Amino acid sequence: MHLCPNIDYVERAWDDAKYGRPSTEPLLEMTVPTMYDPSLAPPGQHIMGIFLQYAPYSLRGPETWDDLREPFAERVLDVIAQYAPNIHSIIEHRQVLTPLDLERRFGITGGNFFHREMSLDQMFVMRPVPGWARYQTPIEGLYLCGSGTHPGGVMGAPGYNASRRILTQRSALD
């Protein structure tokens, strides 16, 4: 599910981040994996993952992500509450990871798990650089399979795609 009602909303979310502040109207991407696999939570309960675009790593002003983590989480829930009014009252546990938390906890530089910005010049056949988008590099036997490759993100798809490319090439050689 995406919460971004129109292009102006998306632009405002980006503008906030561009100017070094958490978005007042964040662009949210939400998944509820328990809709497909109820065994991930106790009966009658669900897990929701919320990813949001455009949270700046570097903040302008005196506040830090440690200061803003919980207020920003509340803002995110306020946005969801416009569509699901009971969201605040049904959450039993939450984990909030800011860009700084992603860097601290997982070593993801700048808290960007795409490794690079997902701008137009970094998508599809341009990711990570022109000519290397099919996972194979000019160095024989060296393949790219991390978040910096298409389609980006920490989800396993780049590794899956790279392994398929390797297997396809190996079977062509056999």
Short characterization:
With 174 residues, the protein is mainly alpha-helical. Helices cover 33% and strands 7% of the residues.
Defining traits:
2 domains, mainly alpha, 3-stranded antiparallel sheet, 174 residues
Helical amount: 25-40%
Strand order of the largest sheet: 1-2-3
Number of domains: 2
- Give the integer mean of the pLDDT values: 86
**Helix and strand element order:** EHEEHHHH
What does the model show?
There is one protein chain. This protein is mainly α and 174 residues long. The protein folds into two domains: 1-108, no CATH class; 114-174, no CATH class. 33% of the residues lie in helices and 7% in strands. It is built from five helices and three strands. It has helices at residues 7-18, 65-81, 87-90, 99-106, 157-173, and strands at residues 2-3, 27-31, 49-53. A three-stranded antiparallel sheet has the order 1-2-3. The protein is globular, with a radius of gyration of 19 Å. The model has no long low-confidence stretch (mean pLDDT 86).
Secondary structure elements and their pairing?
Layout: E1 2-3, H1 7-18, E2 27-31, E3 49-53, H2 65-81, H3 87-90, H4 99-106, H5 157-173
Antiparallel strand pairs: 1-2, 2-3
